[in-house]
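Batch manifest, entry 17 of 40.
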Amino acid sequence: MTCRAEFMIEPFEEGAPGPHVVAAVEAVRSHGFEPEMGPFGTSIEGDPTDIIAALRAMLDTAHRAGASRVSVQIEMDRS
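Output type: structure tokens
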């Protein structure tokens, strides 16, 4: 089973992510992911257990670094 997670950290300004966004993305990287940053969010793919651990770190880091809102969407591929 694989998992895809997308998250959006606000406030966000395309091309100039604030320290709360940079810190949160680095938290995900520290869990072995290479996040894809796009105009409507950042995504990672992998094992569900690893994704959840990375998201937990991302949420904690984003909150501590000043994020005003974090939206998360998780999609499981059970095939």
